[in-house]
Amino acid sequence: MDTDRLARQLSAVAGPAHVLTDPALCASYETDFTGRYRGRARLVVRPADTAQVAEVLRLCRAAGVPVVPQGGNTGLVGASVPTPDGDEVVLSLRRLDGVGEVDPAVGQVTVGAGVVLSGLHRHVASYGLQFGVDLAARDSATLGGMIATNAGGERVVRYGTTRANVTGLEAVLADGTVLDRLAGLPKDNTGYDLTNLLIGSEGTLAVVTRARLRLVPLLPERVTVLVGLGSLEAALGLVARLRVLDSLELAEFFMAEGLALVLRTSGLPAPFRTSYPVYLLVECAGRRDPAEELAEVLHAAEQAGELGETAVASADADRRRLAAYRERHTESVNAVGVPLKLDVTVPHGELAGFVADLPGVLAGRGRPYLFGHLAEGNLHVNLLEVAAEDEDAVTGAVLERVAAVGGSISAEHGVGRAKARHLHLSRSEAEIAVMRSVKAALDPGGVLNPGAVLPGEGTGGMPGPGR
Ligand code: 2HG
Ligand code: ZN
Fold it and tell me: How far is the CA of 391 from the centre of ligand 1 (A)?
């Protein structure tokens, strides 16, 4: 396909200012946030609305040109950047950033795919409501990308993943057909649930353009606690005690090595006088101050000799200061190298053993930093200093161990191109066959994000490691 011709056609749709071919302008769309996945786009197109997205897809499909949809480009599995072969069009949804009026009667709002999460939080707070999903990348991640990956984040224990907080979608199929399920009816059992099919499909089945979101009450009283603990078993024991609290919003963990790195790269002061092997960040929220019920649980754990030091905060600035020790792990790891990231779920009963066995599985290949969402058994295994020639073997060894203990090879970041080869570790042959049938039905030309999710699809292979 002649790129100049396609660029002219797309310019007629989105306007020449929104079709980028200059390498300098395309660069930020071609590299992921970690610098690991780098590719080259044929061009970048930035449509303004659903009709333009539909026309862009129709033209690309007619030209046989693959399309990589992109939101805030905060993805971590190489699904939102093009491959190195320069074949794909990057379809940026960021200009679809309209936010509708909140409907207080049903507690819902309709947003464009390009709306940034922190902007949504601010918008709905004035109605006394909030969106249940929150995550560290809130200032860049877009709702479209979060829906495409079924983002989890920090409050899954209370509000579920993105899937549980979306009541309907508008999305465009590869041939330009627009599917509109934005009515947001709380009860609607009319056939197959296409909204849920598209959530988590990573841009391989359709391009999400708008979403109808479920909102929950904004809880005014919050308390955050950081606890130092002697072991992962102790942290898991504390999570079990905390689960009885209705007010529990999050239980996040990190370890001594990760904290040391955060302190070194951020300049934050150490939270405690002593260093602990494991730290748990807990937050509770309610209409009434949850501090007392949280203190009761912590007291019981302390009596049982399970706790080290604790730091408690209720004022917003103090709570954010405690949360920063956990939330700044990603940027701290990135500040010192290009990490190999594995995002896994391990059943709670297997977690401590999995972590204890990890050094043996790695066999000296890479320096691990572990942190994540302990309430869900979701470990972010970040590995620095893995030699390029060891990356495949290390990835395979860790993910095989995860599968062997009954976990998932992707907890919340998705499969992307990075994990497509390993999909069989978490999904059966029969399931993958059904997924292929669905893909073939919705995108028979295979133009939507080829190579992501399903192994052996597409033209370009993996975007290259950025080193
Ligand atoms: C988080 O929980 C994100 O902070 C990023 O999912 C995790 O950097 C990572 O590996
Ligand atoms: Zn996470």
Answer: 19
d(CA 412, CA 425): 16
> What confidence tens digit (pLDDT) does each residue in 338-392 have?
999 999 999 999 999 999 999 999 999 999 999 999 999 999 999 999 999 999 9
Helix (H, G, I), strand (E, B) or coil at 422: helix
Please give the class, per CATH, of domain 337-413: alpha beta
Q: For 417-459, what is each residue's pLDDT tens digit? A: 999 999 999 999 999 999 999 999 999 999 999 999 998 854 3
**DSSP per position, 198-234:** HTTSTTSS-EEEEEEEEEEEPP-EEEEEEEEES-HHH
For residue 380 and ligand 1, the question of a CB distance below 6 A is answered with yes
CATH number for the segment(s) 108-217: 3.30.465.10
Question: Are residues 384 and 336 in contact, defined by beta-carbon separation less than 8 angstroms?
Answer: yes
Determine the topology of domain 3-95+440-465 in CATH.
3.30.43
Q: Where in the chain is the domain with CATH 3.30.70.2190?
A: 221-330
CA of 215 to the centre of ligand 1 (A): 24
Residue 326 beta carbon below 6 angstroms from any ligand 1 atom: no
Arch. (CATH architecture) of 221-330: 2-Layer Sandwich (3.30)
- Ligand 1 mutation target, pool 135, 409, 419, most atoms within 8 A of CB: 135
Looking up tokens 């998932």 gives 408
Q: Nearest 5°: phi and psi at 364?
A: 80, 0
Q: Mean pLDDT score of the chain, rounded to an integer?
A: 96
- pLDDT score at 456: 83
Which atom in ligand 1 lies closest to the alpha carbon of residue 412? Answer: 6
Given a cut of 70, is residue 84 above it in pLDDT? Answer: yes
Give me the sign of the Cα torsion angle 183, 187, 191, 196.
positive
Give distance in angstroms: CA of 466 to centre of ligand 1. 19
Q: Which of 334, 371, 409 has the most ligand 1 atoms within 8 A of CB, as the residue to mutate?
A: 371
> 108 C-alpha vs ligand 2 centroid, how far in Å?
25
Separation of 184 CA from ligand 1 center, angstroms? 30
Q: Is the pLDDT of residue 466 over 60?
A: no
* CATH 3.30.70.2740 boundaries in the chain: 337-413
CA of 34 to the centre of ligand 2 (A): 14
Q: Is the CB of 341 under 6 A from ligand 1?
A: yes
Q: Tell me: pLDDT of 21 over 60.
A: yes
Residue 38's pLDDT band (cuts 50, 70, 90): very high
Beta-bridge partners for 342: 381
